[in-house]
Amino acid sequence: MRARVTRTRALFPPGETLIFSAGYYQHVRAYLPSYRAWLYAPDSPASRTRVVPAGTHHLLLFDEEAHPAAGQADFARLTLPCNGVPFWYATVRDGAVVRYDPATATVTVAGP
């Protein structure tokens, strides 16, 4: 967790970043309170689609299971040194639509 929080603070400005998380949502709220966070609930259809708010340039998948869907070219990853788990992030634009598919644990970004 320390590596994930440290990398987030070093690479992604709080005012420009939206953090996507389920399992670590409370960690984000505790350790990164100045960041906007989206709690996605795999069992709640209402939480699976969101529109990127104005001023957001970075989307972080702050979760070990969620990952980009095939063909999502805007995503890149950092590998955390502590456990080798990929830490996915993407550049996004205002108004883009982010969707989570619980059947495959994948994330897509579409739109402007």
Can you describe this structure?
The protein is of the alpha/beta class and 112 residues long. The chain has 2 helices and 9 strands. It has one domain. It has helices spanning 2-11, 25-31; strands at residues 17-21, 36-39, 49-51, 58-61, 67-68, 75-79, 86-91, 97-101, 106-110. A 5-stranded mixed beta sheet has the order 2-1-4-7-6, with helices on one face. Strands 3-8-9-5 form a 4-stranded mixed beta sheet, with no helix packed on it. It is globular. The chain starts with a helix and ends with a strand.
| Structure class | alpha/beta
C-alpha end-to-end distance = 32 Å
Please provide the count of β strands. Answer: 9
- Report the biggest beta sheet as strand number plus sense, adding barrel if it closes: 5 strands, mixed
Q: Considering DSSP H and I runs of 4 or more, what fraction of the residues is helical?
A: 10-25%
Order of helices and strands, N to C?
A: HEHEEEEEEEE
Which descriptor suits the 3D outline?
A: globular
Residue stretches low in confidence (pLDDT < 50, at least 5 long) are none
Domains, number: 1
What is the percentage of strand-forming residues?
25-35%
- What's the arrangement of strands in the largest beta sheet? 2-1-4-7-6
Multimerization status:
single chain
Q: What is the average of the pLDDT values?
A: 88
- The count of helical stretches stands at 2
Rg estimate, integer Å: 13 Å
